[in-house]
Write a structure and sequence with these properties.
The complex is a heterodimer. By secondary structure, chain A is α+β, with helices and mostly antiparallel strands. Helix content of chain A is about 35%, strand content about 25%. Chain A is elongated, with a radius of gyration of 26 Å. The chains are: A alpha+beta, B alpha/beta.
Chain lengths: ~375, ~290
């Protein structure tokens, strides 16, 4: 789960990480009300769940209140990478002497939280990783001890030279780690962490993602969730025990198992088609689940053919077939459907499905070819 | 021979009184797995599917000499269940539970190392040494005894491939579903090493997915350390970046973890990568000169 920059900023503030003064506005009127009449230099920033806001014109400096209003008028409603901006953060601009990157991630290789830091701040860390990986400092953290002071100091010493600055930075790292574990985060970045001319270390921009599996115990984080329409469908599907991701193609797929669902999408592509979605119905023969899944698939107007790919394991194909027959009886559609059943009791399953009059095939490859052929009619 | 488990493995089921635990305990028993006990706190003394139930893993290990455990408890309690098994001295822990928070798995990791416990999963279908021992939720009937080892990040896709191998006459030694989470127990390299040392295994099938760089690491290991042939498949070649494809681990983040990089790494290690699952048996036969 992602949150906005202003939400990350608020969490930073709660944990005592220094951040510039700022607030979020949902409308130009709110900007008019909240921005003071002084001529403080401020920055107006689009709040959307994608990177590259600056390049898209979603981040602007304002020298006066009038300018802040002018920028907010332009940025609110702006489209950045397909997402509409419906709020802006307005923060005091900070003079910058030097920029740094610090971040925490769950590292698959060390199986720990790893602290990353770099003196190349303000740019995307992925770019730094590609161009000059030696500039990224990595420090794996022992979960039983947490980020120890000496570790935070060791990292801070590689970014700063003045002892006062080192102390400020090390304290920020320890606080960031505490926030990270307390909230079951999967990513926490301060980019940039800046040194001001008066030698203060401040977090100017922040980004946090959270582990979806842990949201059940993170009510405060869950309350921050905002979703777009595609994500809404995905979350609704999830609540019904389905795992769904919308894609841009025209062949709807319904599969049991995530790996097999991915392999099914790949196969459609391999034979020259375009998958409309990823959809894993899990290991169940429950007809209601199949009906739900079909409704989701047919709700996508791009879909011109459906491929159902089931491998029976513990769940037997004849049980799945009975579920399919019940489900397909409820769904009236003109869109062609291809059914492939394999594995345990596949023969019996295929016999049952034949009563629906729908085309059945024995292998994934055949199913993909048939679905592509039918999608073109 | 085989890897990790065999006919002498004594298995306990953590969460045996739950719906999934009871169902799969009976399936495992029917396959011939030596299920010696189950755990359900407060229900010690009961019997489920003819298996004695204990309150703690420690009680079960003392009474039965169990050396493997399979976990079916709900996700919020799975991390604790792994720890309980580890501290009770269980050698191999298989966690089937899906949706375990990553921080829980991270906390468990150093303890497993300290206690010298091997973990498979979480979020995995388990493992099987054909005709000897099945631990988890794999459908036993699709496997056939033979000489191919198989490691996979997926569930049903594994069954699909095993079925194809069996139908084409290629039996298996041990097949392991390592799970689809980003932080989990034994991984490709740990298992490749064991297959390399298992005299019965003649070839290995590796089924990877997008996300992470475990496949690239496996490719380097194969190139440097393995004498036995390996055939690979990578699921998720058509997946868009930034989207989690069902498995928490199957996500392409900022251009890394893509199928292209993995396929390239395997090509450099001389590992053929099947374009679709149905090519796998042919590639294995080619490598074995069959």
């Amino acid at each position: 789960m992602k949150i906005h920059e202003y939400q990350a900023r608020n969490l930073f503030q709660k944990y005592g990480i220094p951040v510039p003064d700022g607030f979020v506005c949902h409308s130009v009127d709110e900007v008019k009300k909240k921005v003071g009449e002084d001529d403080k230099l401020r920055v107006v920033k689009a709040q959307v769940h994608v990177g590259g806001r600056g390049k898209a014109g979603g981040v602007k400096l304002a020298h006066t209140k009038a300018e802040a209003i002018e920028h907010a008028e332009k940025i609110l409603g702006m489209n950045i990478k397909g997402l509409t901006v419906d709020k802006v953060m307005i923060a005091d601009a900070v003079d910058i002497e030097k920029e740094f990157y610090v971040g925490l991630i769950n590292d698959r290789n060390t199986k720990s939280v790893t602290l990353m830091a770099s003196s190349e701040g303000g740019v995307e860390i992925e770019e730094v990783a590609k161009v000059s990986p030696e500039k990224i400092i990595r420090m794996p953290i022992d979960p039983t001890m947490g980020l120890m002071d000496w570790q935070a100091r060791k990292v801070a010493l590689q970014l700063f030279s003045d002892p006062k600055e080192v102390r400020q930075a090390a304290a920020i790292l320890v606080k960031l780690y505490q926030l990270y574990v307390d909230t079951d985060a999967s990513l926490a970045e301060i980019n940039p962490l800046v040194l001001t001319p008066d030698k203060k270390v401040i977090a100017i921009d922040g980004k946090m993602n959270f582990d979806d599996n842990a949201l059940y115990r993170q009510a405060e984080i869950l309350a921050m969730r905002e979703v777009n329409d595609d994500e809404k469908k995905e979350i609704e599907a999830n609540a019904k025990g389905l795992s769904y991701i919308k894609l841009d193609g025209n062949i709807g797929c319904m599969v049991n198992g995530a790996g097999l669902a991915m392999a099914t999408m790949d196969m459609i592509k391999l034979y020259g088609g375009e998958p409309a979605n990823f959809l894993d119905i899990g290991g169940s023969s429950n007809p209601e689940k199949v009906v739900e899944a079909m409704n989701i698939l047919l709700g996508d107007k791009n879909v011109t053919a459906v491929m159902i790919n089931i491998f029976g394991g513990i769940t037997r194909c004849d049980d799945v077939a009975r579920g399919l027959v019940v489900a397909l009886d409820q769904i009236k559609t003109e869109i062609p459907i291809v059914i492939r059943l394999s594995g345990t009791n596949a023969k019996e399953g295929l016999e049952i499905v034949k009563t629906t009059g729908l085309p059945t095939v024995e292998t994934m490859s055949e199913a993909a070819k048939k679905a592509i052929e039918l999608s073109k009619k | 021979m085989s890897i990790l488990i065999n006919k002498d493995t004594k298995v306990i089921v953590q969460g045996i009184t739950g719906r999934d635990g009871a169902f799969h305990a009976s399936k495992m028993k029917a396959y011939g797995t030596n299920i010696v006990g189950g755990i359900s706190p407060g229900k010690g003394g009961m019997e489920v599917e003819g298996v004695p139930v204990f309150n703690t893993v420690e009680d079960a290990v003392k009474a039965t000499g169990a050396n493997a455990s399979v976990i079916f408890v709900p996700a919020p309690f799975a991390g604790d269940a792994i720890l309980e098994a580890s501290y009770a001295g269980v050698d191999l822990v298989v966690c089937i539970t899906e949706g375990v928070p990553v921080q829980d798995m991270i906390k468990v990791t150093p303890i497993l190392k300290q206690n010298n416990t091997k973990l498979i999963g979480a979020n995995c279908p388990g493992l099987i040494t054909v005709d000897e021992c099945l631990i988890g939720i794999l459908p036993g009937m699709i496997f056939k005894k033979g000489n191919v080892g198989l490691i996979s990040r997926s569930g049903t896709l594994t069954y699909e491939v095993v079925n194809m191998l069996t139908e084409s006459g290629l039996g298996q030694t041990t097949c392991v579903g390592i799970g689809g989470d980003s932080v989990s127990g034994l991984y490709f390299i740990d298992l490749l090493e064991r297959y390399e040392n298992d005299p019965e295994t003649k070839a290995v099938v590796l089924i990877g997915e997008i996300g992470g760089d475990a496949e690239e690491q496996a490719a380097r290991f194969i190139k440097e350390k393995m004498t036995k042939p390996v055939v690979a498949f990578i699921a998720g070649q058509s997946a868009p970046p930034g989207k989690r494809m069902g498995h928490a681990g199957a996500i392409i983040s900022s251009g890394s973890g893509t199928a292209e990089e993995k396929i390239k790494a395997f090509a450099e290690a001389g590992v053929p990568v099947a374009k679709e699952p149905s090519e796998i048996p042919g590639l294995v036969k080619e490598k074995l000169g069959l």
